[in-house]
Amino acid sequence: MLNIDYIIDILPPRVRTNLEPYFEAVGVMREMKDPKVLSSLGPAGVRGLFLQRGKQGVPIQMPSSHSAHFDFSYPADQPEMRTLYERAKAHQWNGSTDLPWETYVDPMNPEKPILPPEFFSSAITDNSPVKLSVKEERRLQADLACWTLSQFLHGEQGALMAAAQVTESVQFFDGKLYGSTQIMDEGRHVEVFHRYLDRKVGKLYQINDNLFVIIDALMRDSRWDMKFLGMQIMVEGLALGAFGALYQMTGEPLLKELLKRVIQDEARHVHYGVLALREHIQTELSERERREREDWAFEVALLMRNRFMAFEVYEEWFEGQMTRKEWANLTFQAPGMERFRHTMFSRLVPNLREIGLLTDRIRPHYERVGLMRYFDGRNALQISGESMLDELDSVPDAA
Ligand SMILES: [Fe+2]
Ligand SMILES: [Fe+2]
């Protein structure tokens, strides 16, 4: 089989710069070993990675063929979801008036960094072959923070659409009521992240190709539980971990307050995802269908772990000066990314266990990639937003 790294190494630099994104895309596709996973994510991969549909600067249509599930008998079918619905109504907040928007934010201010240098940028500036001035280092740090927040915003837009689709298609009536609050929550998250980027940072990065692929695949999948597994458990689980890590590390007070509010909403969303999928996977799916979801979750978890490498910042700053692979290695090893992965998987793995997608069959795969150490952690039903914040506040230096 052809060794892509070898081919990249022997290409002239200019050709290499042009072709490397495509080799990167081929690498992502080759990582999807399971044919069912490939058939689920492959077409989205072509649209996102090769055609770059997320980066054309025009609105995109993503058709979907799920059914809207109606029940005119209005059953009280899921008491825990009804309780969550009541809690969500009581904890609504107003993105316009409940945050201190008057706070002055300077993304270049080293005293109050949005993302401290140890999160990302010092690993790049200390080890990169390209030397930057102090001012450039601060600007790179601000750009990496902006890239991270931009991906949060794009993920929130995906969550808004997914929450709307799932609310239509889920069969639990109490789930629909709960889902209506999540749609409002996600709309508010889009509002506040966009306002922060627009008014306080003044810049917006395009959507990362790999995030686009996951969103595109989920939007078009006709099965509600796949939308749910992908968005509510995987992407939201990742987001909750990322928000927690950033909440702990940011030195910028407005963003900290914003994240504090968003984390409490997101904890409810993941809680709902675990409730709905636990019931569905354990009582309604065939063994074959359950296995498909088990394989899908594992491969998407690996994709998310390995592939969010801020290439959009690389292209702006370092393209032609170092290879994409060198950049990927620098960012993968950054302490903030390490912490981010740790927080993300300590949230995600116990939830996969709780919904029944970590059976004896799949566990050796998680063992092989070092993720079984999170197996005994607490799942979303055991962690409220408040308790998560208490934990993050009490251990300031370890997510
Ligand atoms: Fe959200
Ligand atoms: Fe959410």
What keyword list fits this structure?
399 residues; mainly alpha; Ribonucleotide Reductase, subunit A; 16 helices; globular; binds fe (ii) ion
Describe, in plain words, how this protein is organized in 3D.
This protein is mainly alpha-helical. The protein has a single domain, classed as Ribonucleotide Reductase, subunit A (Orthogonal Bundle). It has 16 helices and no strands. Helix 5 crosses helix 13. The radius of gyration is 21 Å and the shape is globular. The structure holds fe (ii) ion (FE2) (2 copies). One fe (ii) ion (FE2) binds next to helix 10.
Mean pLDDT, rounded to whole units? Answer: 87
Gyration radius (Cα, Å) is 21 Å
The total beta strand count reads 0
What is the number of domains? 1
Structural class: mainly alpha
User: What is the helix content?
Assistant: 55-70%
- CATH top level is Mainly Alpha
The named CATH superfamily = Ribonucleotide Reductase, subunit A
Shape: globular
CATH topology, by name, is: Ribonucleotide Reductase, subunit A
Q: What is the N-to-C succession of helices and strands?
A: HHHHHHHHHHHHHHHH
User: Helix count?
Assistant: 16
Largest sheet: none
Bound molecules: fe (ii) ion
CATH architecture: Orthogonal Bundle
Outline the low-pLDDT stretches.
none
